[in-house]
């Protein structure tokens, strides 16, 4: 399978190294990429032997079979519809874009009309299979997530004191912290939706790793899950598990037997 890649940041570089460099997915290669930083894009293209496209439109018009987005919410808002309408599947890293229910429904309609699919990696959290099962009969009652990060991983966070910097819905959280709280949106899409998923964000100068504490209950019982993520070495705002989950999604995309 030929893949296109949008984004040359931490996750994009990790995927280039894993897919092209280490050949971790049989019969799959990233053959083309686009990044707004064309200097970085050309360097990566030379290292991993991919075509450096000068626009997203160019990569859409190429012979890639699916496109991986590893950029920003804004890129998804601007390009997802065009990608899906072109007949290409989309693997979405910036799931925060789907907090907007109107946009979500628009993309779903485009997928239905063109026979395409959006694949959503689990990101830096777990427990999504439990939430999907629990809501299957409409008896999932409540879902919340508390995210704790060191101050340097959050914008405008106090540096010297532990503080709750946000408390509210997932839809509100992603507007204020689009680079930090994608986890709340993937959690909400598996569960009760962005408006009904409660989010608390804590800045703590005494922690060195990102952590996410998930709590949910309903007719199935109760889920309590805490995940402590190591950040990617080159960017404390990105959890390493988030990058791994994109790679796992690519590996599982066309598996004959799937778990969960």
Give the overall silhouette: globular
Neighbour order of strands in the largest sheet: 3-2-1-4-5-6
Terminal Cα separation, in Å? 23 Å
The first-level CATH class of the largest domain is given as Alpha Beta
Poorly predicted regions: none
CATH topology of the largest domain: Rossmann fold
Structural class: alpha/beta
For the largest beta-sheet, the strand count, sense and barrel status come to: 6 strands, parallel
Q: Could you spell the SSE succession in H and E letters? A: EHEHEHEHEHEHEEHHEEEEEH
Which radius of gyration do the C-alpha atoms yield?
18 Å
**What is the residue-averaged pLDDT?**
94
How many domains make up the 3D coordinates? 2
**Helicity, as a percent range:** 25-40%
CATH superfamily of the largest domain: NAD(P)-binding Rossmann-like Domain
Q: How many β strands by DSSP?
A: 13
Tell me what portion of residues adopts beta-strand conformation: 25-35%
> Which architecture of the largest domain would the CATH scheme give at its second level?
3-Layer(aba) Sandwich
Keywords: NAD, NADP, Oxidoreductase, Pyridine nucleotide biosynthesis
Active site: 212
Family: Belongs to the L-aspartate dehydrogenase family.
Pathway: Cofactor biosynthesis; NAD(+) biosynthesis; iminoaspartate from L-aspartate (dehydrogenase route): step 1/1
